[in-house]
Amino acid sequence: MADEMDYMAQAKELADSYRLLVHRRDLLRQQYEDSRSWFYTKDEIIYSCRRAHMRNPSAYRPVVHQIRWNAPC
Hints:
Elements: H1 2-36, H2 42-55
């Protein structure tokens, strides 16, 4: 009878821990969804920059960078 009680206690403990895990998973999923709105994808950034450039092309000048290699000039 003591073994049966032990199994029942373990079953209850597992059921409780499962509920806690499901709740934690839902909280993490919600935090992830909330944080996604703070970040932009590469495609969204490119699209936004292109739209801004099309609205006012004179405001954006090409930037020319001098490339220096490791070899002495």
